[in-house]
Amino acid sequence: MKFEPVTIKDIGKALGLSTSTVSRALRGSYEISSETKKLVLEYAEKINYRPNPIALSLKERRNHSLGIIVCEIANNFFSQAINGIESIAYNRGYHVIISQSHESYERESVIVDHLASRSVDGLLVSVSSETKDYTHFKQLYEKGLPIVFFDRIVSEINTHKVIADNFKGAFDATEHLIQNGFKRIAHITSAPYLSISIERLEGYKEALGKNNIGFDEKLVYHCYHGGMIYDEVEDALKNIFKLKQKADALFAAGDRLTTTCMQGLQKLGKKIPGDIAVIGFTNTNLGELFNPSLSVVRQPAFEIGQVATELLISMIESKRPVVDFHLKALQTELIIRDSTSRIKTIN
Amino acid sequence: MKFEPVTIKDIGKALGLSTSTVSRALRGSYEISSETKKLVLEYAEKINYRPNPIALSLKERRNHSLGIIVCEIANNFFSQAINGIESIAYNRGYHVIISQSHESYERESVIVDHLASRSVDGLLVSVSSETKDYTHFKQLYEKGLPIVFFDRIVSEINTHKVIADNFKGAFDATEHLIQNGFKRIAHITSAPYLSISIERLEGYKEALGKNNIGFDEKLVYHCYHGGMIYDEVEDALKNIFKLKQKADALFAAGDRLTTTCMQGLQKLGKKIPGDIAVIGFTNTNLGELFNPSLSVVRQPAFEIGQVATELLISMIESKRPVVDFHLKALQTELIIRDSTSRIKTIN
DNA sequence: TATATTTACGCAAACGTTCCCGACAACGTT
DNA sequence: AACGTTGTCGGGAACGTTTGCGTAAATATA
User: Which nucleotides of chain C does any protein CB come within 7 A of?
Assistant: First the structure.
């Protein structure tokens, strides 16, 4: 099938004008007589003329489009963040191209390449959990492609970064558990080199330390696929219950991780919070429907998307090279429900 | 900031060759000597040359990109469908541009226009719940832009359409309720003119009829924003409980609708299934974590996305005008859990 | 009336690529 | 020796748009 849009040439031909005149008339240039302008405008309206943005992109070397790379859109945090991104982008006249890495380094590299060569004007990225090498980003960035990292950021690239205050969020979650009487708190998190894992682990440790609870490495489990692979999570869970000194609570450090943990615990027949209390970093708004209702640390996903996008667009539209970079950390919200309630009975 | 990619001209200049020679060498044309080819290829590799797809699009009047329009990506059905779309698109060399209508007719028109003028090669769309007028689609379609509708389809445009078997899914859900002893089955659904609403309502009626239960209009409620607006749902729920002849079960006909109903019922303090049994059309995979675990009709979202994409690409790549259109209806899956279990006690 | 200024428009190049066409060697064939 | 082949390569147009420059006619100025 072929789709033949009408061009500026068609208008020119129909009206006996040159393309330059038509172009100028369309833009309302002062050097076109008002009659001609009117003529062109009316005709363009009539035949429903739309400028070809491909041609414009070629000329201006600008696309007015933003590339987004996330691991998965079927993830409450990311779908909310994307809504934030869109809300800003569209207002500023930018289109948005979303791609999913599915936590694969391989796919991420391909996507980055593809997006860059498609001439997106900038990139908004949360790196995949498999990514340890950042040269694919670095190369483009050094060539001048604006990139803003959000959520999972990369420290070795000096650009704007937007995150939730993961340290504080993790600290709050852990301390909440401690205050409710839990002492052996397991921590299931994503790949250890991921910024979010590091930050959240630190917050967890800090809360333990502050409350005079020793840090026990055997209570920390890394699921390299962030909860996307069920067995990874179930294995971690099984290990937790195999410990001689049993864990009495669980802090899950990610959206999918949290829900997958809940599924795993259910499958293993564990009572929450009787056998184990659970709190998770998740942006689901279904937490109150769960059995038991789920205590969560909620990230301001929408706002993170917004802030990141504003920063990116400011980079894109900056005349001079940007040298002053920000790391913005937005506050998380602790929502306490039944999955972490204090155990009343003594078994 | 500026991003200056290397072009075919740069290669030509560096190697003392014309652009045409370089172009041909890159494509491996037979009329270029193998030494020259090697020279060009190696140099291109060295400086990391990437062809500019914008220029290609301009030339070929093809984009190798597909536009997707859905109401919301933060919706289990759609995010899964999008995964299906991507899985096919990327394999076939197409990029995917996702846009959200947020159930607004206004936004939908703008997006359609924008996408079309951005020269996507085709459109995959599930219409917004506000959309009653389809001329924005028709115009483009008649001009030759391939469009495939999925999920919420529009009957008056003759093209490929891919849906779940909504009739059967609704029939199964309703009959399941009936078989479990429920007789006054409320039906909360989306805007009445939406294809999915019509099909599901028909299935619901059919199941009632087959089981000799009279259809009562007062049991059917339309939430025009498909569960996106909480109050709409709460109002419907309140009405249900105000009925003289009380409803004993609820069939919710959408993803967001189902979860929002659950939230509403919780807020109203209703016991499920004691006060009212619930089954919903939803693709959440968290149904078993709910309290009570949720019976659902699951749509093959991923497959729907795949099939729709295959059909779209076949339209795009077809040499001759496509005249033979398919309506594919994929089977739903009934997953029975506790929210519809037979009531044992008599209050 | 001759010259300067304004008004209103067209020409052509450019963005990066492909591809038709033509050119010109170095051959082999009569 | 004259011709046709073959193998390599370059020139230039085209895709749709913007924009610097040129220019003709119309008007204003001297």
Answer: 7-20
